[in-house]
Structures are given as C-alpha cells and as structure tokens.
Amino acid sequence: MFLFNVWSSLKLLNLLKKNAEATRLVSYLSHHRNLHNSVSVGEEKVESKRVRIYTRTGDKGKSSLLTGERRPKDDAVFEVLGTLDELNAHIGLCVVYCRSLERSVLTAKLEDIQSSLFDLGAVIASHCSNSEKWKGNFDLAKFRFEHKKVEELEGWIDELEGSLPTLRNFILPSGGLVGAQLHITRAVGRRTERRFWTAFQHTLPAIQDCKDQFETLQCVGQYLNRLGDLLFVAARIAAQETGSPEILYKRPS
After folding, report:
1. Which residues constitute the signal peptide according to the record (predicted)?
2. Do 126 and 22 share a structural domain?
3. Which of 21, 36, 213, 238 could make an SS bond with 178 (beta carbons 3.0 to 4.6 A apart)?
4. Residue 45 backbone phi and psi in degrees, to 5
C-alpha cells in the first residue's frame, strides 16, 4: 500500500476520486493525518468518505499509478514503491528505538525523512511513461520533489559527522540495537536506490524536454543516494549515544 501527501489541487483530487484505488489512498491518508471529516485543498474543503480498505481492483495482478495507468504488480515502478514502503517501515522502527533513548539527535530527522519518503513515493507514482501525455497534464506535475531536500540531508550529514571520531577503519554493522537497525535500514535504502534506477535509468534521457518531470526524478535519485550516506552516519551516532562499541573489520587470518 502506498501512502501519499495531500493532493496539491482540487482538480487533481477530483481526478483521483474517479479511480477506486486512488480514492482509498486519499481516504486512508486523511484518516492517518487526523483529517477525518474533510481534506483541505487551498481554501476549499472536500468531504472525505469512509471507504473499505480492500477494493478488489488488484485481484487480477494489476494496479494503478496516479496517472490512471494500470500496470502489472511486478512492474519495476511498483517494485520501487514497495521497497520504498519497506524502507519507511524500517525507519519507523528506528524512530521507535530512538524515542527510547534520552534526547537522541536522530529522532526528529528520521521522522522528517519518513514524511519526505511519502512525497518521494507520490513523485514516482505520478510518473507518466508518455512525455507528450505528461505535458498536457500539469496537475500531476505539481508532485515535485525539490533539490532543497537533498541539501537538507547533506547539512545533516555534515552536522552529525562533526561529532564523530574520524573513521580510520571499515566498520561492520554493529553499534548496539539502534545502530544495528540503522545499518539494516541503510542496506534497504541502498536497495531502494537500485530499484529506482532499474525503473528509471532509461526514462530520464527520454524526458529531458519535459523539465519538471526530469528535474524531479533527478532529485529523487539524488535524495536516495544521500539518504544511504545519512543512515550510515546515523548508525554511528546511535552507537555513540548508547555507548555501544562499533565492531571494526579485521582481515581473516
């Protein structure tokens, strides 16, 4: 299941409501953001109706993107979205662990990343394989993921690294319960990045004339790359905060 941010325009919301699966996503997101009665879009409010979690529209092995395009569930784009969901779940577990610590510097950052991954998923799910069709659908182009999010991760990496001892050896996944979980999360993040490029490495050259979509997808790839670095540094910070030793690599004798 993919959860997305509140849609950026009333027109787009109406478009999504025509699709049963997208309607489910809007209602589910509204529920989890405590918007039980309505979804605010600009100055207008759209009444949100409770719908069943199951829709039966995917029973034959296909599902819909936000463009309305239906693809097989083993499509590369859905593989990215599923792995992204897995990554977000792992980060959620890291947040739970960090909250158990006293004033961890990681908690707020990880929570912010979780929300950013929602937005990133919306970008991927609103990708249109037909660039001409994309040009005529500017509402979908409002699903943007801007470079400032990449710069934010870079700032956090620099900030966190400043409080760590210089790394002079390879370290093995370790650093106590929180550190080890962050290393697992880092590995899932790198897999998410690989799945993204499997799905989109041939798409980007083909859509260079469609500036919004091209730049947004580029930022998604950059964000996933920086996120892997951030999670590595976060694992080291967690080891430091919990007083857990990092295990150094030793050449087998």
Report:
1. none
2. no
3. 238
4. -125, 135
